[in-house]
Amino acid sequence: MAMQTTGSNAEGQPMMEMNTTPLIDVMLVLLIMLIVTIPPQTHAVKLDLPQNTNSPPPPVEPTKNKLVITQAGQVLWNGTPVTLTQLRTYLDVSQQMNPVPELHLQPEPNARYELVDEVMAVTKRAQVTKMGFVGNEAYSNF
Q1: 23 in any annotated domain
Q2: Based on the structure, what is the number of domains in the chain?
Q3: Is residue 3 part of a domain?
Q4: Which domain holds residue 116?
Q5: DSSP sequence for 82-97
């Protein structure tokens, strides 16, 4: 039986090149394991929403402020456009009132989530305790 030789290794000398295929396979497996084990980065504003019970809803306070976030990127405080800095000032003033007025948050269905998130973060920093979402029926089409 004759052995065929190819390339420069015709004289039966050992190969001097390292076989990197197994090393690459191991590195790919480790990379996949690393990617799978990294937790996904999520950003969320935590809110404690009331649980749905069969009891009648509480009476609505006569004093309330309506905060609307429009599709165009505007924040409206009782119908007047405000910046996030002005919003924080208004929220701080309203939290000092007695009784504390409710804040009704009504984002439009196509409003940017980033702006809604920023507004909710401002309300959380202002320690708003009486807050509700209004106009949820607009999202029934999604």
Answers
A1: no
A2: 1
A3: no
A4: 64-139
A5: E-HHHHHHHHHHHHTS
* Predicted TM-score of the model (pTM): 0.54
**Is 112 part of any domain?**
yes
SS3 80: strand
Does residue 135 come out as left (phi exceeding 0), alpha (psi in the -120 to 50 range) or beta? left
Rounded to an integer, what distance in angstroms lies between the CA atom of residue 55 and that of residue 96?
30
**Cβ neighbours, 10 Å, residue 69:** 21
Could you tell me whether strands 64-69 and 75-77 are parallel, antiparallel, or unpaired per DSSP bridges? antiparallel
- CA 142 to CA 132: how far, in whole Å? 21
* pLDDT score at 140: 66
* In a domain? residue 104: yes
Residue 110: CB partners within 8 Å, gap ≥ 6? 71
Q: Which amino acid is at 84?
A: L
Paired tokens of 37: 């084990």
Divide the 142 residues of the chain into consecutive groups of 10 and give the mean pLDDT of each group. Answer: 54 78 91 85 68 57 80 89 89 84 88 90 89 76 60
Per-residue pLDDT at 29: 94
Helical pair 113-125 and 84-95, crossing angle rounded to 10 deg: 40
CATH number of the domain residue 113 falls in: 3.30.420
